[in-house]
Amino acid sequence: MSAARPLTLLIAALGGEGGGVLTNWIVEAAAATGLPVQSTSIPGVAQRTGATTYYIEIWPEPASALGGKRPVLSLVPGVGDVDMVVASELLEAGRVIAQGFVTPERTTVIASTHRIYAIAERMAMGDGRFDIGRLMKAVEEQAKSHILFDMEASARGAQSVINAVMLGAIAGSGRLPIAAETFAAAIRAEGKAVEANLRGFAAGLAALQPGTAAPPTAEKRRRPATPSLAELEQAAAETMPEAALEVIREGLRRLAAYQDRRYARLYFDRLAAIREADTAAGAGGAVLRETARHLALRMSFEDVIRVAQAKIDPARFERIRRELRLEADAPLSIVDFYKPGIEELCSILPPLLAHPILAWSARRGWLGKVYWGMTVKSNSILGFLRLKLLASLRPWRPQSHRYREEQAQIEAWLALIAEAARRSAGLALEIAECARLIKGYGETHARGRANFHKIETRLIRPALAGRYAVTTAIDAVAAARIAALADPEGERLDRTLVEIEERAPGKLAAE
Prior knowledge:
The protein is an alpha/beta fold. The protein has three domains: 200 residues, Pyruvate-ferredoxin oxidoreductase, PFOR, domain III (Pyruvate-ferredoxin Oxidoreductase, domain 3); 181 residues, no CATH class; 95 residues, no CATH class.
């Protein structure tokens, strides 16, 4: 390639996938080769847990051959002027294509074919997923060349992380004048999780070695096995800071017992974005630790399935006998009282059924007013079987209205924390603590959600938009949270919010 222009790389990664680390590896390798290099990062809007674009320019000739001259490198990618696009997920590749950075004359696209669904896809009443066929076709038509394989599966197979596999794919593409060993040396020089990262690098490199078959695309390969709980805990030990490790391990165990190992993996993946935000904020693991604690609680939300599981837990029957000081053969009748409403009954229905029922009930003013009182003898044969039937719906939970609703809200909350961490670790911590408002089920859960929504719309989002100075925002969110916890009905919170907003003119952020 002529030295008349630099080599340009655009990296599109989701928050927590190590896009910044990948960029540093490439920059370090280019510098070690003697090539002038420059990089920048461009934070994006929250898409799943935050998307960030990284841009690198590398002059293809060593500095020693330039006769003392220094090339002028840009901090902004130009449409139609990008040599390589690297995407950690297929929709991210589509996003870069839609922005015009991929051209048939110049661009090589390296992308993982796995999907991490966007909030808009998850919130759809039906199947809101983007058509993977259209995404693949867009890459094939718009790029000069492309390298597509499931990098997430390769990372799991190597017990590594996706950014290391991406680096291996970049090295294997041959598009950069940097030796593969120089990239590996950059991993060693960083000194963090070296062995795991080298395994991932080798997996990405092997996928592109000459003479090997092209890796199958995501829709053609068999679904990789879900890692065991022990493997997840090991991955946490290798990638998470010590300050948050014990909380994360406990969260993994809790969620594997609550749902399954796949759900525990989702917990681990979500924390990766917060880990990166914590590091960027210099929080020393504090933001990650508190978020991990509250995230485990939020993901193990109380629904009728969870309540049924708890009611028929043998440990509960033993505890009641112990507290009543009953002999093992003494007769005992346990009667549980329930008052489910329309919302609770709809919570386990699929969204396509739940939405019209809830809308119809809302129009008639029944929500929050219509309940069915009932009693169940939990340790009788009939009562136990009724609860056992509800508890057996656990595999169905991910298809339920309540599950879909909770996951969308959790993603939005995590995005707020990650965004706040870019301004202040203290503000991110206060937003994480606001999760204490959302607990229980039925009326308790509804009140907590309503109070959190007030704090989010009237304090958190204005603070992130710069309406308040950071210290003022931290104090305001803390005061509102305390008021909401002290009075679940929300009257004290309303007064506190009014007082904060009245003081706002004198507290506007200087920036």
